[in-house]
Amino acid sequence: MKKAPLVIFFFVFIIGFWVWFQRVIKTQREIPVKKEVICEIKRRIEEIDKIAKNSENPERAIKESKKAIFQLTFIGSPGASYLIKSSLDKKKHRFARVIYLQVLAAIESKEAISCFALILKNEPDYLLRMQSAISLSMIKDERVIQPLKEGLFDKEMVVKVASATGLIKMGKKNLIDDVIKNDKGLRIYLEKWQNGF
């Protein structure tokens, strides 16, 4: 009989804790992003834009943008909508857009999946299509599988390879088996990749 009050107390405590925890989560969702954070996101995007315009290759743009990339990655999901908009903006320099896609992948932004898929499907610039395939493969979500499968039929080999390796890393090698039977070039690249070149 002495155990009954203890069990009841424990049960009430668990329910109370759960109710409190749900309120905390709801409050966290309702907290608006501070103006200072939005200003910082915009400032870092402008900084990357400027660096990209003056860089002769994406590696240099990335290297010179490390501080801005780190800050945007640290800010995380509050910056996702701004990064998505900038990634889709064709007026922005291609190297800057590559960086935005990388940051979105680094913060594992699931809201960016449709952005990655759209770029992979429609973007004329192969560099952006390749980065979109790489970014898709970094997001743990079943919705990335279909765009990556479509990427296997891209006209550029680097995009095909990025899509195929993404599917392999996700444990979906069976989805590329039929494609590599009919695409000798892709098969050779994948064999080199699996053997470490």
Written description of the protein model:
With 197 residues, the protein is mainly alpha-helical. Helix content is 74%, strand content 0%. It is built from twelve helices and no strands. The chain has helices spanning 3-30, 35-53, 58-64, 66-75, 80-88, 94-106, 113-122, 126-137, 145-151, 157-169, 177-182, 184-194. The longest helix has 28 residues, at 3-30. The model has no long low-confidence stretch (mean pLDDT 85).
Strand content: under 5%
Over all CA atoms, what is the radius of gyration? 22 Å
Low-confidence stretches: none
Q: Which structural class matches the secondary elements?
A: mainly alpha
Helices, by number, come to 12
Whole-number average pLDDT? Answer: 85
Biggest sheet descriptor: none
Could you say which overall geometry the principal axes of the C-alpha atoms support? globular
Give a brief outline of the structure.
By secondary structure, the protein is an all-alpha fold. Helices cover 74% and strands 0% of the residues.
Summarize the topology.
Blueprint: H1 3-30, H2 35-53, H3 58-64, H4 66-75, H5 80-88, H6 94-106, H7 113-122, H8 126-137, H9 145-151, H10 157-169, H11 177-182, H12 184-194
Helix pairs in contact: 2-4, 2-6, 5-6, 6-8, 7-8, 7-9, 8-9, 8-10, 9-10, 10-12
Write out key terms for the chains shown.
197 residues; mainly alpha
